[in-house]
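tool_call: predict_structure(chain=1)
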Amino acid sequence: MFNNPVTFQTTLISALVVATAGLTVPAASMAADYIEGKDIPADLRPLILPKTKLLAFVAADLNGDDRLDYVFILEKQKSRPDEEPLTDGQRPLHIAIRQADGKLKVVKTNDKVVFCSTCGGVFGDPFADLRAGKKTFTVSHYGGSGWRWSNDFQFNYSRKDDTWQLVKVSESSFHAAEPEKVKEKTYTPPRHFGKIDIADFDPENFKGVGAK
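tool_result:
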């Protein structure tokens, strides 16, 4: 995805959007740009937990049943401005599936897949994008200082296991002085990992993990 890191950097600084089914929703920028008020779909609002704000969401048919679901990211808020910045579990990702009666039900959560707001080095907030389509979604990050880095974590729905599993991790890096020299790595199953449920995914510990 990030074959042209200079272009990506410029795009990230300018504006980022998340494409949903039929509409475009703002994602995070260099400083978290929360989605609030009228920009939050009415059926998603009850799922915004107390002391959190909506960072990003995408509407898509996530399990292939022809009903519109949501994958969304919340950000936990500090109780007081003088508190230390939150890091671990700051940005839980949730998957809400639409039931036969039309109501949404959160069926999966992961509080590690989305990096914290201060985890991007001098670039600050590393969260770059949340994308989704039929039976798939991807979380992307970008950050660093002299050395820049980016990653994509892609999950696809498994009808057999009735869950979303890691299917691809893409990583790239380059030095700011030589942006044309990009180092890229791609990890896929079963060579690099086995079955990893979205609920169990840890970006720091996925290689060699999971039954093959």
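agent: The helical segments are 5-14. Proceeding to next step.
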